[in-house]
Design a protein that fits this description.
15% strand; 2 domains; 7-stranded mixed sheet; 3-stranded antiparallel sheet
Length: 379
């Protein structure tokens, strides 16, 4: 149960206790099997996630950052090639681009849904542009249908960063739907403990419907091997360990329930906070469901930091995802001029504030959080 004197941003302990017997049995069984790398648990989870996502191939790996790196390696991009990426995202998305000698081309995001702004992308295309990495930020999808049209027009690969929206659906104009992460050439996700589907350590996976890409991804993640001791390409060592797979095998059965709980908690927040002048609650686009990895407010009139400090005095945590645009990070100073700015990204970095959000969030806890936000705004 949550303690009002110590409200967590994410309550992993309560989630574990609700399925403790199943988790413990799965972990113990794996240890007793002595299959610590690979083995039946990893294979079982791979197949279960493929079935859940309705995707042809899932390739587990060590973490979400590795997934992004392996995806770009599998596309055969060359040093100097350009990859379009939103500037308002976690560093890993652009970090792997630079790590491989590629050039991150940072673009702005939509003020309403925080995802990549398709308007203006034409101006970013050069002869070196080879790929685009939409990030499904905070739990809902980028405008994939438009992005696919744009990518096809310019012969670009599409790599989905789906670390924050596993389980969310994308709705196409023709009435069909697909799980986010299965729409582009390759999808990437993370099983970091706080994710909607999280393990108890690090983990990640890549998804694709392309047989050729799947084989190349498998090789890259396993030292470039086509078979044992036959290394066809330069690869890396990135694998999901069996104990983490055992945990994920159990938790995958509850992912839809966890996401529903998050949606319900978000609806409660929105109902109570939506009419407060000075804040803007998150919206859900009509083309994507929202699984609320984060519940992120926009706090206007330079009140964000004051609200954060006030909530902290009441024992309520909050987080700023993300306080600094990627192009202002020293690591990326070689890619942009000092004067480079993106209007919406600059605004969001000054306004966003994420409240506690997880699958075990209780209404009485939310009531306390809401009470003090209203108190701050005298609402």
């Amino acid at each position: 149960m949550e303690d009002f004197d110590n409200i967590p941003m994410v309550d992993l302990k309560s989630q574990y206790l609700s399925i403790k017997d199943q988790i413990d049995q799965s972990v113990i069984s794996t240890i007793e099997s002595s299959q610590f790398i690979g083995g039946s648990q990893v294979e079982s989870f791979k197949i279960s996630l493929q079935d859940y996502l309705k995707v042809k191939h899932v390739i587990p790996c060590a973490n979400g950052t590795d997934a992004l790196q392996i995806a770009l390696m599998a596309l055969g991009l060359k040093p100097g090639d350009e990859v379009i990426v939103p500037a308002f995202t976690y560093v890993a998305t652009a970090e792997v681009i630079g790590l491989l000698g590629l050039i991150p081309i940072m673009v702005d995001v939509d003020l309403e849904n925080f995802n990549i702004l398709i308007e203006g992308l034409e101006n970013k295309i050069t002869s070196k542009t080879k790929a685009i990495v939409p990030v499904h930020l905070f739990g809902q999808g980028s405008g994939m249908e438009e992005l696919l049209i744009f990518a096809k027009k310019h012969n670009l690969f599409v790599v989905e960063d789906n670390a924050q929206a596993l389980g969310a659906d994308y709705f196409f104009k023709n009435g069909s739907s697909s799980k986010l992460g299965t729409i582009g050439d390759i999808g990437c996700t993370s099983f970091f403990p706080s994710k909607n589907l999280g393990c108890y350590g690090d983990g990640g996976a890549l998804m694709t419907n392309d047989d050729r890409l799947a084989e190349k991804i498998k090789m890259i993640a396993n030292h470039g091997q086509s078979k044992k001791y036959h290394h066809k390409i330069i690869g890396c060592n990135s694998r999901l360990d069996s104990i983490q797979a055992a945990i994920l095998n159990v938790k995958l059965k509850y992912l839809d329930k966890y996401n529903t709980n998050r949606k319900n908690a978000a609806a409660f927040y929105i109902k109570e906070l939506d009419k407060i002048s000075g804040i803007v609650t998150p919206i859900t686009m009509n083309y994507s469901s929202h699984v609320f990895h984060q519940f992120t407010l926009k706090v206007k009139e330079n009140q964000r930091d004051h609200l954060k400090e006030y909530l902290q005095t009441k024992g309520i945590p909050s987080m700023i995802y993300y306080p600094i645009p990627l192009y202002h990070q020293e690591a990326f100073s070689g890619y942009v001029s000092k004067s480079f700015k993106l209007e919406n990204t600059e605004v969001l970095c000054k306004e966003v504030l994420s409240l506690p959000m997880h699958s075990e969030l209780k209404s009485e806890t939310q009531e306390k959080i809401i009470f003090h936000i209203k108190e701050f705004f005298n609402a």
